Amino acid sequence: MIRRVLGAALTAAALALAGCGVGPSGVLGGGQAPTGLAPGTPVYFVDDEGGLVVQRRGDRLSTIGQAMKMLLTTTSPGPGLRSYAGTSQVALELPIATSGDVITVGLPIDRADVRREIGLDQLACTALAVHQQSGGSPATRVRLDFLHGPAAGPRHCPVLPQG
Amino acid sequence: MTPVARVTSVLGGLRPRLILAFVAVAVTGAAAAAWASAASAGTALVEETQSRIAGEIERTVTATAPSMPYPPGQAALDRLRTTIGGSALVTYGALRSANGPAVDLVTPALRSATGRTEQLVLQRVESGGRPWLVIGAPVLVTDLSGAQRPSGVEIYAVRDISRVQQQIDALTANASRTSALALPIAVLLALLAARGVLRPVRELRTTARRLGSGDLGARLRPRGTDELAELAETFNETAASLERSVGELARLEADARRFVADVSHELRTPLTTLTAVAEVLEAEVEQMPRDAREPARLAVAETRKLARLVEDLIEVSRFDAGAATLRPEEVEVRAAVHDCLRARGWLGEVELDAPAELGALLDRRRLDVITANLVGNALRHGAPPVVVRLRGDDERVYLEVIDHGPGLADDVARHVFDRFYKADTARTRSEGSGLGMAITAENVKLHGGTISAGTAEGAGARFAVSLPRWAGEGR
Amino acid sequence: MARVLLIEDDRAVRRGLALALGRHGHDVGEAGTGEEGLRVVDGAPPDVVVLDLMLPGMDGFEVCRRIRAGGSLPIIMFTARGDDLDVVGGLEAGADDYVVKPVQPRVLDARIRAVLRRGTPAGDGARERHHDLTIDRAALTVSKGERQVSLTPTELRLLLELSRSPGQVLSRRQLLELVWEHDYLGDSRLVDNCVQRLRAKIEDEPSRPVFVQTVRGFGYRFGPV
């Protein structure tokens, strides 16, 4: 009887010892892989049929600020494409603030400079495309602040996944 | 006994077994609990560390990737590798950027897994006696529909996790200490528990021993209602029934003995008359008519025999009643034995082999009875020469009576001190009362001595008596 | 030879012993009770009394004490039981000797003759003085100072034997043979008891005896005074 009890005790001890520690392991799943690579910065324009079209600029994804700047500084986007988002010759990257699932972009233009409603979509989609491609959540919305005039949003982009 | 057998027999005791079992269970329990908690803490620690490192890398890469050109050149890979820091490897197709010796720890299995998955993967490896965590991750491209696909850029990072090992070691050491601490406490508790369990067993043993040694009133006190209490009750019932039976037997025997004693005493008075008249008759026998002489002689002889028998019965009754007392006095044993032989006219038939003087403190009358009965027996049943040998040392006096007859058979020797025992069944009446040897044995016992019967080598029967030399002392 | 009074309640025993003792030459008187025995002792004193201890009415111990109170008449007691209690009680009551039933008449005869011999002069007729104790061996009298001491024949004989050689130790065994004429198995309690009674009569302080001294492990010694 003693021998059996001792045997059980030793087995339990051995098992316990084997369970703890950081011995070599096989290949384990380790969660989410990184992302953020993209062949250029996505910038949204409007085609002849009034649809939103993405255009890649540069060789990297870059930031929301850079993307917004690209959108606002583009006066002639190319054949068959227009921009209603207004223009500005800003030298600096735009101020971006993130709070919860809302990104606030401070635009160096007035609300009145955005000539059509779709111009707001251009701004929102450009910001959210960069956000999503750099690993951000599709549920995030964007709010557009203007120098003058009421802010727009928070809103989703109609051509991007919305959470 | 071999050492192993001795250990086995020591461990075989109820107490050691109880204690060992108790200690084993307690220590195993404590060790299992301590180690289980250490193990789960250790596992949690490892997992927390792994996911922290993986998360860091994922965040670092995700933060850096948007500023990287895609497809990347060597410079971009180098920059990414630098941002990851430590030992790291970044590949894209044939391009490769590596730093640190530990990148050799990236196993082929991990590399192939990284190529096949869209997840971050991990593997723990050991090298140089230290544990390492290897992380492999494909950098993904998230397209505008939300779908993700591998970009072809793969990163590998190798991290030293020996600090985790140290923390786990500390946890294990702590668990061992906890288990070790449980040992003395377990032993203490085991001793207490064993005492509690074994006390009734010990009481049972003590009481059984008392019962065995004749204390028929010995009983257990049953406590509680467990199996031991039932055992105690059964024991008590058995003891009570035993006491009743023995008491009944003792009462019957006491009655019988009292009857013998009473009858013997009652016989004394008529015997006194008979003895007196027998003596008159004996003196007158020659003056009687011839045909009356024989009956007269017979009557005289039988009267004397009857007187002796009653005398012996009364003596035996006195021993039975515990009324026999020892009256020790200074005795020169050689002279006392010599007087005994002379008084009975045996000096010519018996050889006395004794030291010149042997002083002792004995009951003179009882010593005479012992000697006379043994010598008388030897003369009646043995053959001459009869030798009485006396010896003494500081503590004891030894008296031996040896004859040169056929000796005593074993079954005779066993019963020779029984009352009315007759070795020769053909002889219906012996010269003596049949109580002589029994009285002899009782007298020896009263002195605190021993007596034995057997056959002497080269001679006949041998009776050996050993008496304490100073029997009266301390009385 | 001697006049013996046999006090015994059983008629058959009395008759048997009377017949046997008669054959040994004694003149035997018989009494069936203690009271009757005492009347005989008062009226016509015998030379010796043989007294059964187990008597109806007044028991043997009481009879013994009364005879002893009245004088130094020798008494041999007759015990049926032979128990230590009987023997010790009888000796303390003043008996000189004892026999156990059933006794052989010749043994009883020998005891009777021995006890009677104690009262006869022992050889030399000297008159000795030991301090205030005067022993007249011819007249068989003992005086303490001016007062004569009444001793039984046994007590007297014991004193005579002891004082014959003052300072010399006599063992109980020797005294039993000299005074009681017993064989080697004599009861030493007879000696011890008689010494007690003797001391009570001749010593100033019986518990610190001067004349009859105990020698532990050996016996008794007279003086030295």
Characterization of the model:
The complex is a heterotrimer of chains A (163), B (475) and C (225). Chain A is α+β, with helices and mostly antiparallel strands. Chain A is 28% helix and 21% strand. Chain A has one domain. Chain A contains 3 helices and 7 strands, in the order H-E-E-E-H-E-E-H-E-E. In chain A, a hairpin with a 6-residue loop joins strand 6 (141-145) and strand 7. Chain A is elongated and about 90 Å long. The relative contact order of chain A is 0.15. By secondary structure, chain B is α+β, with helices and mostly antiparallel strands. Chain B has helices spanning 3-11, 14-64, 74-84, 108-116, 162-212, 227-284, 290-320, 333-343, 364-381, 410-415, 436-446; strands at 87-92, 95-99, 119-127, 130-142, 148-160, 328-332, 350-353, 359-363, 386-392, 396-402, 450-455, 461-468. In chain B, the strands form 3 sheets. In chain B, strands 2-1-5-4-3 form a 5-stranded antiparallel β-sheet, with helices on both faces. A 5-stranded mixed β-sheet of chain B has the order 7-9-10-12-11. In chain B, strands 6-8 form a two-stranded antiparallel sheet. Chain B starts with a helix and ends in a 7-residue tail after the last strand. The model of chain B has no long low-confidence stretch (mean pLDDT 83). Chain C has 2 domains: 3-117, Response regulator (Rossmann fold, 3-Layer(aba) Sandwich), CATH 3.40.50; 127-222, Orthogonal Bundle (Arc Repressor Mutant, subunit A). Chain C contains 8 helices and 12 strands. In chain C, the strands form 3 sheets. Chain C has a 5-stranded parallel β-sheet, with helices on both faces. The termini of chain C are far apart. The model of chain C has no long low-confidence stretch (mean pLDDT 87). Chains in contact: A-B, B-C. Strand 1 (28-32) of chain A pairs antiparallel with strand 3 (119-127) of chain B.
